[in-house]
Structure prediction request, 327 residues.
Amino acid sequence: MKERQLGKNGLVTSEIGFGCMGLNYHRGPAKDKNEMIEVVRTAIDAGIKMFDTAEVYGPYTNEELVGEALTGKRNQVQIATKGGFKIDGLKNQPDSSSKAIISAVEGSLKRLKTDYIDLYYIHRIDPNTPIEEVALTIQKLKQEGKILHWGVSEVGAETIRKAHKVEPLAAVESEYSIWWREVEEEVLPVLEELEIGLVSYSPLGRGYLTGKLNKNTRFNENDNRGELPRFTQEAMRANQVLLDFMQEIADTKNITTAQLAIAWILDQEPWIVPIPGTTKKDRILENVTATDTTFSPDERVIISKALEQIRIVGDRYPESEKKRTGR
Prediction:
């Protein structure tokens, strides 16, 4: 697989990474652990380097699974994880105090069975701790060798500037896909200016852009999509127009809509890395081969014009979660 560099100060990694959350969290009943470990190892064999998790996924169990899956493979992979919550099993409020971050990193290192984290993100901004203070804490952890690169997740342009000024950011993690492009307004321009990479989570629209979900889909326990406005029956019915358009383009290129969604993100900027996740081995090959798809200037114009005209129904998060995104 080809590689990309996440900005001027970022790590060099595979063109696409792997979002690990859905292996055992927020995507329905947990699958067999050994099967999920095999999925991760299949991804490694396919050339994927970056594996993205977080302490709050579970909480803790996702990092534990990833740590076990990467045992013996550490020199072949890069681990990205996230912290910055006071995990109480209830609302998990943001907490980026120095004490909390240092404790979170220590916990992640133990669960991930490693002595360093390649890319550590502040998961959500703590309104009670200035980002400049957070950056100083991260600076100390980098000096100790426990973190190699750092980033922030779901933040606005001003926060990015403040954090980067104290300790250069390698990447910003944000949702970004062909059906959620708000980051193009303010975030992408500042990332380009400051030479910071973007890691795009949910590039497949939490599965919707694969075409495998529809208005009749019902979500099981432990699947947070049932709580998201964009996954109501009405929203999925209305948003079928986007899938229909994507299918038309995909058919002309002899690819799937999932591959189209990944290829579209890769085509936006050379410093963007999408991290689709899956629980199925065959989907890994599908996702990886999406990197072979390119677009002609005419195709770019056609897609751009269509996206300007298609109105997506439903927000990506309920209001309570949206408030935490910093935008």
The radius of gyration is 19 Å. The mean pLDDT is 95. Residues 98-111 form the longest helix (14 residues). DSSP finds twelve helices and twelve strands in the chain.
